[in-house]
Predict the structure of FAD/FMN-containing dehydrogenase.
Amino acid sequence: MSEHGIDEAAVAALAATVTGLVAAPGDAGFDEECATYNPYTPMRPAVVVGAASGRDVAAAIRFAGEHGLPVATLTTGHQVRGADGAVLINLRRLNRVTVDVDARTARIGGGALWSEVLAVTTPAGLAPVNGSAPHVGATGYLLGGGHSPTLGRLYGYGADTVRSVEIVTADGNARRVTADSDPDLFFAVRGGKGNFGVVTALEVELFPVTRFYGGAVFVAGEHAPTLLHAWRTWAPALPESATTSVAVQRLPPDPALPEPLRGAFVVALRFAFIGDAAEGERVFAPMRGAAPILVDGVRDRPYAEVGLIHTDPPGPLPYVDRTTGLRDLPAEAVDALLALVGPGTGCPLVSVELRALGGALDRRPEPPNAVATRGMPFVLFGFGVGGPEALPQLRGYLGRVLDAVSPWAHGRQMANFLSAVDEGATPAEVRAAYGDEIYDRLSKIKQVYDPGNLFRANHNIPPA
Ligand SMILES: Cc1cc2nc3c(=O)[nH]c(=O)nc-3n(C[C@H](O)[C@H](O)[C@H](O)COP(=O)(O)OP(=O)(O)OC[C@H]3O[C@@H](n4cnc5c(N)ncnc54)[C@H](O)[C@@H]3O)c2cc1C
């Protein structure tokens, strides 16, 4: 009998019904199946199921229900909330992606990464509303809203583009959920993340986008005040075909970085324009002239290079992070931020970024979904990297950054940016992230589909 009250015979019986891998602590393959992007969110489940099919997912969920254990999922571990004593379902094998070119849709396996989606969609001349990092799971991103550095302001949140969801709910039943079949569940799962079941596949709309004008320009950190003040007035006036963010970064001495950026204090100014490259260059020109440029990586690019706008670290990475939505970004807010992250501050964080939202992100899709950040013009996201000894300082500094901009806080948060590791993930924070109206509706829907709160190893929305 294991410490979680499961005997070997029960695990063996589960293994006999599953075509993928089943492993308990100490078994071969257990550690590999449980490995996460962030070592500060380790997974210590009672048993892990490396699901090879929707049937495997259903078997794992039924097993969890029978043994009174929570269910956790893992694709990359970018945002997992721990799985102590849970049945962990590793979804990485469910990575099949197919494209219907005529319908302009893709069916994405529940464990596919954006890189695996893009490998199929870009040759077809189509693009999804993907996120900044190709190594992030597409389904995790789409279930949490999904802010795209290229297409969001034109086409909305990633969740707005989801047409159907194949999901196994707490009763172990597989359902194909659409706006017509289960309107409440379809509302909830597009924004409510993993609270309502395990998604084995979903179908998204694609867009005829093959190129973009964009990338990142880096300037020395000493110019952060000039650049951030210029950006805060320029960004909100952009056309919807343009997207931008700005990040104050203390980069590591990583040999993979080009010389002027290695170990440097810089500001990364990101930009993407969907349309004619000459027009993109014209739109970007005011920022190109705002401060002396160290590295200019903004140019006409094939869509396959979308990951080079942010060049997010592929990991694994020991980090802590925090986020806040902002309802406004006046000069005082930029000054308050610069007082903690600007030149001469000794800021210990690797990156503090501001993304400008707006455009289609503000428009309610039809049918509506649980994305709660419509009308929020900016989001701030910061993270620090270090060993356990550095954590108190990093956490404290992230808290100070959030406090500094709190007079301009929006109140809502992007579900995808909620921290997995510390105070950014409390029940109060999750409620505030969605706002009372959406949160209470999600709790009621949870009561219907998961009354026992089987899916609680996440940013949990308990049933009510
Ligand atoms: C470097 C980096 C860049 C990012 N850039 C963006 C960005 O540009 N825009 C944006 O919106 N977000 C972004 N994110 C946030 C990212 O979208 C979330 O962390 C997302 O949850 C990652 O999903 P995952 O499957 O990779 O992670 P995991 O940690 O494996 O999953 C996280 C959670 O998602 C849920 N989940 C995932 N898959 C399923 C499934 N199949 N069924 C049910 N629940 C599931 C579960 O609740 C799970 O605990 C970024 C994150 C990182 C680390």
In short: The longest strand covers residues 211-220. Residues 391-405 form the longest helix (15 residues).
